[in-house]
Amino acid sequence: MKFTESLWLSIGSIDGKILKHPFIQGLTEGSLDEEAFRFYVIQDALYLRDYGRGLALLGAKAPEDQWLMMFVEHARDTIVVERALHGSFFKDWKLSDEDVYSIPMAPNNLLYTSYLLKTAYERPFPEIMGCFLPCYWIYWEVGKELERRGSPRELFRRWIQTYSGEQYTSIVRQVLEVMNQVAQGLRDEDLKLIQNHFVTTSKLEYLFWDMGYHKQAWPV
């Protein structure tokens, strides 16, 4: 069994709950409140600024030059490509960049990005890989499932196509291959640390969808 296969087995229940979450169900049924989708997209834009910075740190700690180049390129694409996707939605909603980036992070978003950046600054490359992998992988799996189910709303289909296309598939497969190469020769205790990060950020992925669905606000 490849190491990544064992990682995925460790989050089987989490992945199942994500696919059954009413946010995901609402995308395919077309019943999701557009206000909740807009809240999610705005928070995702805020998230990706920090995720991109974390990817740059991951690349800086990479032991191989090709991995350095790959993750730095992903950091760039996170800012440029994803922002273009979000920008198309913001244009529909008549929101400027100033409008979007002046909005504070919701609690679950701040929790997630803080964990990512803390790990990226403090931990070695293999652990950071485990921490950042769920965002790549879960979005790919969710995208494939949503593509299979379809959606009656063009707005939601536009988002779905981003994470189910061949280009994104190729990116995720490259990252999975790096993770498997990194895992070779590591001690069991090191593999366990990677898995712990992987499970934690998978849980945070669930909380991110939940945050969007409930339009989470600070209670105080």
Describe the structure.
The structure is a single chain. The protein is mostly helical and 220 residues long. The chain has a single domain (3-213), classed as Heme oxygenase-like (Heme Oxygenase, Chain A), CATH 1.20.910. Helices cover 83% and strands 0% of the residues. The chain is built from 11 helices and no strands. Helix 4 runs antiparallel to helix 5 (65-92) and helix 4 runs antiparallel to helix 8. It starts with a helix and ends in a 6-residue tail after the last helix. The mean pLDDT is 94.
Enter the CATH topology name: Heme Oxygenase, Chain A
Q: In terms of per-residue confidence, which ranges show pLDDT below 50 for 5 or more consecutive residues?
A: none
Tell me the β content. under 5%
Termini separation: 47 Å
Q: Based on the structure given, which CATH architecture is correct?
A: Up-down Bundle
User: What's the helix-strand series?
Assistant: HHHHHHHHHHH
Largest sheet, in brief, is:
none
Radius of gyration over C-alpha positions, nearest whole angstrom: 17 Å
- In the CATH hierarchy, what is the class? Mainly Alpha
Q: What's the quaternary structure here?
A: single chain
Q: In total, how many domains does the architecture comprise? A: 1
CATH-level-4 superfamily name: Heme oxygenase-like
Structure class: mainly alpha
* Backbone shape: globular
Q: Share of helix among residues? A: over 70%
